[in-house]
Each structure stands twice: as C-alpha cells, then as structure tokens.
Amino acid sequence: MKTKWLLSSSAVMMGLLGLAGTFIPEEISVILGLDPSPIILILLQIIGGLYLGFAMLNWFTRSARIGGIYNKPVVLGNLIHFIVVLFAVIRQLAEQFHFLFVILTLVYLGFAVWFTLVMRSNPLSNQSKMSG
C-alpha cells in the first residue's frame, strides 16, 4: 500500500489548516460567524498549532515504513484524529446542513478509511509482492 501519498496529502491538508488557524484566526472567526473574542482567537491558534504539528509529523514520516506494527503511533494518532473530527462534522451536518460540512465529511471519511486500511495492512507482505 502506498503510504507516501496518504501521509503527504494529509500533511498538506493539515498544514494549510494549521497555517490558517495560526495566522488568520480573526478572519476565520468572522467566516464562521463567531465573535472574535480573545478566547476564540487563542483556541483557533492552538488548533492551528496542533494541525501544524500533525502536518510536520506526517511530512517527515512519509518515506518511512508504515502499517501493521511499523509506526503504529503515527497511524493511530492520525486515525483517531480523522475519526473524531468525522463524527463531529457528521453531528453538525445532522443539525445544520451546509455545503462545507459535506465537503469536510467526505474528506475526513476518506482519510479515516485510508488510515484504517494502512493500520490493518502488512507493509512487509506488500513490499515482497511488489519486488517479486
């Protein structure tokens, strides 16, 4: 299974979200219809920092062997993130339909499924099939 694409694409997505949350929290709060109070701005910057951290983790791990027991903390961390956010977005979508929630649901569902497949795969057997 090609994990380089998975980790690279999730790193880019999380990096963009992280940069936005870190550097333009006021604009994001206005877009979301939130009062740009100091606590909202700090929380958006904290979330941005978390996304940047995950992005860097995925980016620098993208060439490593992933799957099964290899780099399990990286896979599990990503999987938990994508599943938790997926459920949160689905819950919000059930309460209020918005096109943005539909897009987020599809993106997070795709990454959750992909990380689940990676966690259940054996990179050694995949590698031997490719080289044989």
Write up what this structure looks like.
With 132 residues, this protein is an all-alpha fold. The chain folds into two domains: 1-63; 64-132. Helices cover 81% and strands 0% of the residues. The protein has six helices and no strands. The chain has helices spanning 3-23, 25-31, 38-61, 72-95, 99-120, 123-131. α1 (3-23) runs antiparallel to α3 (38-61) and α4 runs antiparallel to α5. The longest helix is centred in the middle third of the chain and has 24 residues, at 38-61.
Task: Explain briefly what this protein structure is.
The chain is an all-alpha fold and 132 residues long.
Backbone shape: globular
Total strands: 0
User: What helical percentage do the residues reach?
Assistant: over 70%
Instruction: Note the run of SSEs as H and E.
Output: HHHHHH
Straight-line distance between termini = 15 Å
Rg over alpha carbons: 17 Å
Q: Let me know the largest β-sheet.
A: none
Structural class: mainly alpha
Unreliable spans: 128-132
| Average pLDDT, all residues | 91
Work out the strand percent.
Answer: under 5%
The number of helical elements comes to 6
Total separate domains: 2
Features:
mainly alpha; 2 domains
What is the secondary structure topology, with strand pairs?
Elements: H1 3-23, H2 25-31, H3 38-61, H4 72-95, H5 99-120, H6 123-131
Helix pairs in contact: 1-3, 2-3, 4-5
